[in-house]
Amino acid sequence: MAPHKAPDSSRRSDRSRRAIYDAALALVGESGYRRTTIEGIAARAGVGKQTIYRWWPSKAAVLMEAFLDLAARAAEEAGPQAGGEDPQAGGAEYGIPDTGDLAADLKLVLRATVDELNDPLMEAPTRALTAEGIVDAKLGAEFVEKLLDPQLALYVTRLRAAQEAGQLRPDADPRVALELLIAPLTHRWLLRTLPLTHAYADTIVDYALGGLAPRP
Known about the structure:
Elements: H1 9-31, H2 38-45, H3 49-55, H4 59-78, H5 102-118, H6 120-135, H7 137-164, H8 174-191, H9 198-212
Helix pairs in contact: 1-2, 1-4, 1-6, 2-3, 4-7, 5-9, 6-7, 7-8, 8-9
């Protein structure tokens, strides 16, 4: 008789965690943040409620981790087109590419952002968490700290490199400059004023850099 092989608890935990992530994101997209419950997530994921409470202290913690995981997977799938891996960080971090052509690099990244915001898998939970973060200051602050600020820091790094290369005015504030790029996308996406397209992303870069180019 072949020896009995004990179940791999780590693989089982990974499967359960992934199921919980997927269930949380699906429910918040379908029903909104406030109507999503730990009980509902557990039922959708096919796990016990206590399993969730053993790993996370609250619904907000579940959803935040699930969303961060979703964002990380999206970055991995984008690969070099969204900046590529940092070999010194073991492939764990991503950055905006620096090919020497600032406009092309920014257009590449903004187009990838457009694709993410238009992706139904990303759009529904992003909208739900963004909306809840407006009325729930604690959740909003966590959303900014854990997801938004690290992404914005990548823009700051790339824009500072462009300043050092003489491609931007030396007195330009990189944080303000990145808002000229990100804010129009966010406004159009949140309010659905007009379609969010690659052409629009390219135009934003052209307009922003036209105002930031070195003065004669």
